[in-house]
Design brief:
about 550 residues; two-stranded parallel sheet; about 65% helix
Length: about 550
């Protein structure tokens, strides 16, 4: 059974009070007021990096104000630096524990960090400070569902219905809780109550259609989803669900039209591409089907079910060498997959590789004799559905549905995510201004620094390491020498030595942004993505804005 796609609803910035209004009578000098206004304006126009620069200035001038920490947290949240956002929210709450928006932003950040228990605590506080905040109540329920605290979630959802009897979301959440408890009868009662409260409530219509599909009432599900799509035409998930209901009514063209619409709106939608590929194959559009499976395998090269489907389609279209390539990849992953050997044998015979075909057939024969192995024929498979993550190669032709019922978290803030690509590379070596280098009293050490830098620029790493080792022995307080030696160590894959030098550079200069960034990159190279994010967050805060793109693209790998 499916719930809703998890997303952060656009944050309605204009609901927030202007700086200086509703903040407990904050008085600020004109220059900090102006910096706050510029920062807020940059935030409004989605220039998050610029806004952080101005909030940094306010924090430096008046660290006792909670507002700049809150707004800087919001900017970091939009940059998907959830660790940095959580840290800034915590500081804002320490200064002023009575502002509910800060708990909400920290809660959303913690959800993205999968700290659901902490997020639940935040939403509990938000509802205590602002009891009429429906979004906070809603997210409090969903965090408890995520924690499998269903009794607690049910109690909170009941409180929502008591406070707002016409609030359809409360009934939808009660239905979700019933589903989590395997009570489909209760789920149907609650979702019907939601539709009595609001017959045009799209999430309730979507959930109602899921329950209808559970009972294989495909035509009724189709009708319900059509109404949901009329009300919200750009809801990708509803198009994918209606396609499934149409497929079961043998309306393949209608199903394919829905998958086309879903892909137009969300070009990376896995289920739409996979299922459209299967439907295209069923109606004889083999080359178009191959294109869909090509796409799936570009975004997920390890999807063996898509690989098997593409191999079969390549066989159908006469691309035997391509089929051999795909069957070989399957066999490498599943060496006991005998059907793969037999199909590869057929492909090899088709290109005249009789000896290779015989080897594959002999392998299967030996295994059959040894294990009395029997095969399920293609014709015996039923066309139904499977979960995306289920791997049973006999079911490669089945349509996919999502694995988990994801939760729909709400908020009242606005903004879009910057999505800039940034290469995962170290920042370059640093020179030191002459006036700073002159503080190194040892003339030979000064010369060694310059020589080491020249070696780095020509990628002569061993001589550079020797030069900077000479420098740090005679000028142990020169942070750039440790930084540069760390660069040489990292480039030669001696990551532990690089980490030690970068840590020393940061100890000598705590706001050394380049060292923080490079230490984060080295941690990613070591596979420690979670440990890298705090360093990258601080580097971004200090002005190295590509750190935020690195955070975004590596958070999922923690």
């Amino acid at each position: 059974m499916r719930r809703f796609s998890l997303f952060i609803v656009s944050l309605l910035f204009y609901l927030l009070p202007p700086f200086g209004e509703g903040w407990g009578g904050v008085c600020a000098q004109v220059n900090t007021d102006r910096m706050m206004d510029i920062g807020r304006n940059a935030l409004y126009f989605d220039d998050y990096a610029l806004s952080i620069r101005y909030f940094n200035q306010v924090i430096a001038a008046k660290p006792y104000l909670h507002e700049p920490y809150f707004y800087r947290a919001l900017a970091k949240f939009y940059l998907e630096d959830y660790t940095g956002a959580e840290r800034d929210c915590s500081e804002a709450i320490r200064i002023n524990p009575y502002y509910p928006n800060t708990y909400e932003v920290r809660g959303l950040s913690r959800i993205n960090l999968r700290k659901f228990a902490d997020a639940a605590t935040d939403y509990a506080m938000a509802t205590e400070v602002q009891p009429q905040n429906k979004a906070a109540w809603h997210n409090w329920v969903l965090c408890n569902i995520e924690l499998d605290s269903l009794t607690r979630a049910d109690s909170i959802a009941s409180a929502i219905i008591h406070k707002w009897p016409r609030h359809a979301d409360g009934y939808v959440m009660k239905s979700q809780i019933s589903l989590a408890q395997k009570d489909t009868v209760g789920a149907e009662v609650w979702v019907d109550s939601a539709l009595v409260s609001d017959r045009y409530h799209v999430p309730a219509l979507s959930l109602k259609s899921s329950l209808l599909m559970h009972h294989e009432r495909w035509a009724d599900a189709d009708t319900t989803l059509s109404e949901a799509i009329r009300l919200q035409p750009k809801n990708v998930q509803n198009h994918v669900m209606r396609a499934l209901s149409r497929y079961h009514q043998r309306n393949l063209r209608g199903a394919m039209a829905d998958y086309d619409m879903a892909i137009d709106m969300d070009p990376t939608n896995f289920a739409a591409h996979y299922n459209r590929g299967l439907l295209r194959a069923q109606v004889g559009e083999d080359n178009a089907a191959i294109e869909d499976f090509d796409f799936i395998l570009r975004i997920d090269p390890d999807d063996v079910m898509a690989l098997y489907n593409r191999a079969e389609l390549l066989m159908e279209t006469g691309d035997y060498r391509g089929a051999i390539r795909d069957y070989t990849a399957l066999i490498k992953t599943y060496p006991n997959f005998h059907q793969g050997y037999l199909r590869r044998a057929q492909a090899r015979r088709s290109i005249g590789d009789v000896r290779g075909a015989q080897r594959d057939e002999e392998h299967v024969l030996r295994e059959q004799v040894a294990h009395r192995y029997g095969y399920a024929s293609k014709a015996s498979r039923t066309a139904s559905t499977r979960k995306k993550s289920e791997i049973n190669l006999d079911e490669y032709q089945k349509l996919v549905v999502e694995d988990e019922e994801e939760k729909h978290y709400e908020s009242e803030y606005r903004g879009k995510i910057q999505n800039r690509d940034s290469e995962l590379t170290l920042l370059p070596p640093l020179s030191v201004p002459d006036y700073m280098l002159m503080t190194v009293r040892n003339d030979t050490a000064r010369a060694a620094f310059t020589t080491g830098l020249e070696h780095l620029l020509t990628e002569e790493f061993e001589p550079a390491i020797r030069a900077f080792t000479f420098v740090v022995e005679r000028a142990p307080n020169l942070a750039e020498a440790y930084y540069n030696r760390a660069y040489a160590y990292a480039r030669t894959h001696r990551y532990d030595l690089a980490m030690a030098d970068l840590t020393e550079a940061i100890r000598l200069r705590p706001r050394f942004s380049q060292a923080l960034f490079n230490r984060g990159i080295v941690l990613i190279f070591k596979g420690n993505n979670a440990d890298a994010i705090p360093d990258l967050s601080q580097a971004g805060e200090l002005g190295i804005y590509q750190a935020y793109s690195i955070i975004k693209h590596n958070t999922a790998k923690k």
